[in-house]
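Researcher: Please predict.
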Amino acid sequence: MIEFVDVTKAYEQGSAALDGVSFRVDKGEFVFVVGPSGAGKSTLVKLVYREEIPSDGHVMVNGRNVSRLKRSAVPFLRRGIGVVFQDFRLLPRMTVADNIAFVLEAVETPVREVKRRVSWALELVGLPHKANSFPAQLSGGEQQRVAVARAVVNSPAIILADEPTGNLDPDTAVGIFNLLAEVNSMGATVVVATHAHSIVNAMHRRTIFLEKGRLVRDVAAGGALR
């Protein structure tokens, strides 16, 4: 599903965000990526959906080398990937329903199907009563639930979450992680970059640990972080 083969990502100033990283995530897995600030977590996530391109090595998604994709093929790659960001990235002048529908309308989904899928996604995240609200009228946790709904509404095979609970209180964060686990149980492959070690330990999922751009540990499901 996702494979990094000796991946290095260096920026212009010469620092390596990732240095020789190799791992594989199989279909249907739920994997945490953890490490201190600057360890390369966000870079790893961006490489999967081709926001960044590796300086060396290969990033494979569904058997395709994403760095070799033509620019015209990148949108098709991203149709199969839902991304949840720390800062939500909701469009402020659109209602909750319209924010979610926007993903489907961009790929010319029929109107009736858009309505059905938006309704399903709102039910999934427990916010059907907020369909006509605007982002500014929601709490941070509610906004992140909308972001999750937007990420899953097109039923992508892969869900990527980059510090999805960084701006949320601990109780709300647990709810978001449980929601991502529910999405995983429905068949999606989920990769979550996070600082939330206590929640990672509680959920007992496979965990990749980065430090200074290198993969230093790959803990099997059920293992605990120290």
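Model: The two ends are 28 Å apart (CA to CA).
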